[in-house]
Amino acid sequence: MRKLLTAAGAIALAATTLTASPAQAADAPYDVLVFSKTAGFRHDSIAVGTQAIRDLGAANSFTVTATEDAAAFTTANLAQYETVVFLNTTGDVLNATQQTAFESYIRGGGGYVGVHAAADTEYAWPFYNTLAGAYFASHPAIQQVTSRTENRAHPATAHLPSAWTRTDELYNYQTNPRSTARVLATLDESTYSGGSMGADHPITWCKGIDNGRSFYTGFGHTQSTYAEAGFRSQLLGGIRYAAKRADADCRPETGYTTLYNGSTTGWSQSGPGSFSNSDATLSSVGGMGLFWYNAKQYTSYSLKADWRLTGDSNSGIFIGFPNPGGDPNIAVNQGYEIQIDATDTADRTTGSIYGFKSADIAARDANLNPPGEWNTYELLVEGQRVRVYLNGVLINDFTNTDAARNLDGYIGLQNHGSGDQASFRNVRIKELGGQPTCDVRVHAESFTSVNGAQAFTKAGANNGQTLGYIEPGDWAGYNNITVGGATAIRARVVSGGNGGQIQVRTGSQTGPILGTLTVPNTGSWDTYADVLAPLSGVPSGTANIFLTFTGTGTGLFDVDDFTFLRPCTPTVTNLALNKPATASSVEAAAYPASAAVDSSATTRWASAFADPQWIQVDLGQTYTINRVRLLWEAAYGSAYQIQTSTNGSTWTTARSVTGGNGGEDDNTGLNNQARYVRIYGTTRGTAWGYSLFQFEVYGS
Fold first, then answer.
1. Which CATH number is 581-699's, of 3.40.630.30, 3.40.50.300, 2.60.120.260, 2.30.170.40?
2. Are 266 and 293 in contact (CB under 8 A)?
3. Which PANTHER family would you find in this protein's record (predicted)?
C-alpha cells in the first residue's frame, strides 16, 4: 500500500472475465532423474510419459536423465539432481542400500515426484509410505471423472478449473493422506463408479519431508494423459515445486471455513474501485479501496489467502480494523496491512507489517514466487500478536502495542489503483478460540553442555551476556526445555562476521534437525536482529535441545537468546462478574449498571438517550487488564473509549474505538494496571441510548 485516499460511497462488485496470466519467468537450470523400474504391473504409458517430461524439460530449463537401473540411487549420483520422478514404478524397486541413499537425499533437500503407480511401490519400506503419502489399494475400470481442485495456488494446480473433467484410471488408497500432506485435488465419487474413499478422496497432494519436498498425482495411467495440456502443466508444476523452482504452502490443512471461494456473500466494497469475480478469483479493478468481509469480526485466528500480482503491482491484506463504512482509511489508521508488493522499502514490502516491521527479507526472498505466479499467506493472529507465513514459511512476527490500533476486528483485501493488478483466491479462516501464546525463551548462555562456544559479556544483550566465540562445528545443549506444541523458533543474534546457520536438534548434537535458522551479517557486532524458522517433528512435552553451528570462516555470530513459539490455553476469569458497577444514567430502573456484570445475556444496562454516557466497574483490587469484552444490545456505541484507573478518579484511555457496529466487541491486547474499568461512550450508534448485555474484564 502506497497511500489510501478517502472516497465516499462503495462501488458494486463487477463480474468480468479474467485476463490472461503473464508468462512465467525462466527458472534457473536444473536436472531431473526419471525412474521407471517396475517389479509388478508395467504401464504402457511409461515411454510416452518419459518423453513428455523430456519435452517439458526442453521448454522449461531442466534436463532429463531417464533410467530403470536402481544402481543410480547412490549418494554421489543423486546429488546431481534437484528432483527424482517415480514414473509408474511398481513393486520393490530399491534395495536397502539404495533406500538409505534416497532417504538421505530427500531429507537433505532433494525432491520427489510420484506419478500414478508410484503409490504401488515399496510397500515394505515405511519411509516411502511417508514420502509418497499413501499406498495404492484398488481401482475400477478406466472412466471419466470430475476432479475437484481444492488448492489453486500450487504451481501444479493453479491453471486448473475448480471442476476438472477427464478420463483416467482412478486409484483408491489404503489411507487418506490429508493428515500429513496438503491435499490439492480430490475425486468426486458421485461422478464415476468404483470409488471407495467417500466424500474425501484425495488424488493429488504435496508435503515437506525435513528439507526435502514431495509431490504426488494419481493421474497418469493412459498414454493419452501425457498429451493433455492440463495434465502436462500439472506435471510441470509438481516438478518445479519438488525441485524448489516454485514455492507453495504444503503443510496439512484442516478445519478452515471459506470466506471467499467464488461467492462474495458477506463482502462489501469500501471506497472507490472494485474486484471482478470470475473463475472463483477476485481481481482488482481501479480505485483505491478495500473489499472487506462484513459478516463477522475475528479475534484469534489463522487466516489464509492465495494471491497473485502482475508486474510491479501493489496490494495488501488488512486485519484488525473496525467497520470502515465508505472510508477505507479507517482500516489504514486503526488496523494493520500485511503488504504484498515486493518492490518497496523493507518495512513496506512483501511480508511486512506495513510501515511498522519488515519481514525477514532473506526468508521472504527464498520463499516468494515472482509476479505472475500464485503465493499463499497465513496470517496467524493470537491476541495482539500476528505471525506471517509465506508459502508455509514464517517470515514475520509482530506484536501490537499501539492502543489506537488492534488486531481483532474485520479483515479485507486492498484494491490499490488502476495501475495495480492483484488477484485473490480461496480466502479461508480457522478461529482459535482466543488462545494466546505461551512462548518459551531460553538465554543462550545458560547452556547445560557446550563445545567450543563460550558465554560472553556484551552490551545490549538480554541478561547481559550472549553465547559467543562461535566457530563452525561448535554446539550448545539445553536440558528439559518445554517445546511441546512449538511451531517455530525465533533467535536474537548479532554478527559482524560471515553469519551462518543454527541447526535446532533434539536429543544430542547429532540428533534429528527440527529446523534451521539462517543468521546474516547484522551490520556490526553491536547490532542485534531477530531471525525466524519453522519447526517440524517437535516432540511433545519437554526435551533436551541442542544448537549446532555451521558456516564458513571464523567468528560466525553470537546468540543472545532463542524462543520456542507455541500456543497454550490459560485459565480465564471474568474479573467484573458481579462486582459493583455504576453508570452516568439509566433509561429506567429495570436497566441498572449491575445488569451488565451479572453474566446474564437477558439483562442489560441501558442509558439515557444522550451523549456522552459511561458505565464503570470496581474490580476490588488492582489487576493488569489485558481484555475487555462487550456484548451490545441493538442500541450500541459506535465510538467509545476503554478507560482504566487505579483510584476511580484519574482515568487513562487504554483504547479508543470508532466505527463500531454493535454485537460483540472483544478488545484484546490491552496492558493497563487498573482497579476500575470504564466504558466512556461518545457516539451512539442509534437514536436510543447505550445498552450493554455484558461488560466483561479479564487480566491477572
1. 2.60.120.260
2. yes
3. GALACTOSE-BINDING DOMAIN-LIKE SUPERFAMILY PROTEIN, SECRETED GLYCOSYL HYDROLASE
Question: What architecture is domain 30-243?
Answer: 3-Layer(aba) Sandwich (3.40)
Closest CA to 300 of 317, 323, 320: 320
How far, in whole angstroms, is CA 644 from its chain's centroid? 35
Is CATH 3.40.50.2000 correct for 440-565?
no
Do residues 539 and 484 lie in contact, with contact meaning Cβ atoms separated by under 8 Å? yes
Task: Say how far apart CA 696 and CA 700 lie, in whole Å.
Answer: 14
User: What is the gyration radius of the CA atoms in the chain, in angstroms?
Assistant: 28
What is the spatial distance between Cα 104 and Cα 100, in angstroms, rounded to a whole number? 6
DSSP per position, 687-700: SS--EEEEEEEEE-
Residues in the chain: 700
Does 539 sit behind a cis peptide bond, omega within 30 degrees of 0 on the bond before it? no
User: 185, 198, 39, 7: which is closest to 117 by C-alpha?
Assistant: 39
User: How open is the CA angle 256-234-107, to the nearest 5 degrees?
Assistant: 75
In this structure, is the dihedral angle defined by the CA atoms of residues 560, 508, 366 and 332, taken in order, positive or negative? negative
Is this structure's pTM higher than 0.90?
A: no
Whole-angstrom distance, CA of residue 539 vs CA of residue 116: 33
| 493-522: pLDDT as tens digits | 999 988 999 999 999 999 999 999 999 998
Please state, rounded to an integer, the average pLDDT across all residues of the chain: 90
What sign does the dihedral 316-521-494-392 (CA atoms) show?
A: positive
